[in-house]
Amino acid sequence: MTDQPARVRFAPSPTGRFHIGGARTALYDYLLARQTGGQFILRIEDTDRKRYVPGAEQEIMDGLRWLGLQWDEGPDVGGPYGPYRQSERAEIYRDLAQELIDRGHAYPCFCSPQRLAELRQRQQKLKQPPRYDGLCRRLAHQEVQARLRDGQSHVVRLKAPRHGTTVAVDLLRGPIKVENASLDDIILLKSDGLPVYHLAAMADDHLMRITHVLRGAEWLPTFPYHVLIYQAFEWPQPIWAHLSVFLNPSGKGKLSKRHAGAKGGVKAIFVLDLREMGYLPEAVNNWVALMGWSYDDHTEFFTMPDLIQKFSMARLNPSPAAVNYSKLDHFNGLHIRHLALDDLSARLLPFFEAAGLSPDPQRLRQIAPLIQERIRTLDEAVAIAGFFFRQDVEPAADELVGKDMDTSRSAQALAAAHRALKDLEPFSHENIEARLRQLTQELELSPRQLFGILRVAVTGQRVSPPLFETMALLGKQVVLERLQQAERILAVSQ
To answer: Are 9 and 44 in contact (CB under 8 A)?
Structure first.
């Protein structure tokens, strides 16, 4: 495809939240740029002022930075081909629209919204495809100039060819042929002087020297128009790649922003929501990379350096991909286990703080190895290890009753454990384990019975990190206090 450094752009519209489809496009752009020693450009396509959402641009930037996809040129960092917001480039588009008119490939259209609405209604009644009928295309040059001098409101339309075929070449799908007779004279410049996507994106891709355009498959229907615009300007075309569509987890229907939430098995589609849910950016990148690309038929775990080295445009797949959240959980668990303990504990800290806990970072670092193998998301750490940082735990009395045991015998087991551990020195997990296993024999209890009672007593929950390491980290004083508290709870319940 190219041995030269690639210049690629991620060009989102700030009309909503930053979602995983955009994240995948940005990731592929970033990988191609880093792999070839090229540039990754962020361009904000904000000419649709009616749909503009305040804060959306900032969320896009925050999401990209969280994913580790730092751009080389963009609205905030500048670059040699700015401005990088399309709303700041209006004069460029007006000049190019006039150039297309001068070249005979576009024309002013003065039709009112009312006339266009009536035209659409007639076409619907006749079951004809909706398109502009070319009225202003047939106006004499003198009349056009007179109307422009009078300041009549107008748009600029592409003068699509009426005969022959247009061939648009997509990297994933090959040549796409369209009969020109089926094409419409689409609007390029609106009456307010701002461009639509078809003109602005093509102009900016050329002026910013973009070599590869990676974008969603939703642009395939209008792809021939974009080729026509390039041809009209006699510009060399970039390599075009329209990425696969994301499907709902069921595999039925296109995934959309409306599906965010629990509906239909859709956990979340917005990048920053995934961050709040405890997913790692490394795992999200790994996950979305494999929805539309593969390295081989068995390799699944990729770090960012792996992806930069192994990514290939030739292995992009146009087939729709169902969003699989089980895979995301799987990848997140793998990447959590791949983290150094200092890194893991630093990432866990905000989740404990958000739960109202104030863990000491050094203590959290000691706990990290106990939970690293057991959590799939960072927020699960609070549920499994929050008891380390709570003053008291208050287990339910029925949970303190061992399997096939009654309340009285369970209370006796707690008292015996208290006596066995009271003078134990050093209070290490090896010593704790040896003494408690001996105690099971003395009490004629199975390890499951005794350890189950003790786990609930010292953690307040039936599932926890390894019991003996947990007791050692809690310390003798806390363990003894919680055993006594559990005895009192059982005594009151009798």
So the answer is: no
